[in-house]
Amino acid sequence: MGRQRILITGGSGLLALNWACCMRSEHEIHLAQHVRRINLRGVQVTSLALDSVETMSRQLARIRPDLVVHTAGMTSVDECERHPDMAHHANAILARNVAEVCARLGIRLIHISTDHLFDGKNGPYTEDAVPKPLNAYARTKLLAEQRVMKAHAGALVIRTNFFGWGHALRRSFSDWILYSLRDDQALTMFDDVFFTPILADRLADAAHRLADLGAKGVYNVAGEDRVSKYEFALRLARAFSLPEVLVQHGRIAASRLLAERPRDMSLDSTEARKLLGANMGGTAEFFDALRRQDEGGRREELLAAVSE
User: Fold this and answer.
1) DSSP string covering 128-165, please?
2) In which domain, by residue range, is 126 found?
3) How do residues 99-137 score in pLDDT, each as one tens digit?
4) Dihedral, 100, 102, 104, 106 alpha carbons, nearest 10
5) CA dist., res. 125 & res. 115, Å (int)
6) How many structural domains compose the chain?
7) pTM of the predicted structure, to 2 decimals
């Protein structure tokens, strides 16, 4: 499809910011801000009342997006466990509201879900696997999927686990690893927790292509490499020529995390791969792209993109 008007909720989040950077040369991008202010070259910033279906309907009728990408939500697993009511509102209620408005106005919708929906005993997981959420975050994200699909039958729900450059007020998982190693700080990384990470830009590109092909329902969009958190950090250190010796083995059983986590969150992206006719890519390719983004100024641009 040609140039589209794309509205992304959760505009100050790292996925929305990287998505905007990835797509701003091809599409007209609108980032929806809530509390934090956003200043990003080549995109428009707008306020969006996710709490009110009626107000949001008027706002989207004015903006007239071709596509809404819903990334807003409460993503800290332990904070969701501490505040389940807040998590339910941020993850399930707001997702339902967005889906209802998009359905009412005939707007295509991509809803970003998670890989945390399972108990971690039978990965990699396909779209047909029965969810068995272990914590409040997973329960509210599963409820969000169900409410989105009930409200908007044509919605595309993406299960994934992404990484990319963060901003000054919110570091990403890969940021934390890279900045720590650059400061000669040792890291203890779980070697018994597995996932299939994908670069945010690759996720955005795949999601757009799936939407343009008319995909609806649940699709896994994840990297081809199933790695432990330890192996991810080790490969990232190697790709950025940082000291691998600082990456140390750890076990999640010895951690003091509040919420129970699945040991295996890996996703099987076969269905998306068949529809797109291409692989999603692996960590070596993603880390090379991440390094080139840094060299091209993405990291510095995003560091300054969000303020209180």
Assistant:
1) TSPP---SHHHHHHHHHHHHHHHH-TT-EEEE--EE--
2) 5-307
3) 999 999 999 999 999 999 999 999 999 999 999 999 999
4) -150
5) 9
6) 1
7) 0.95
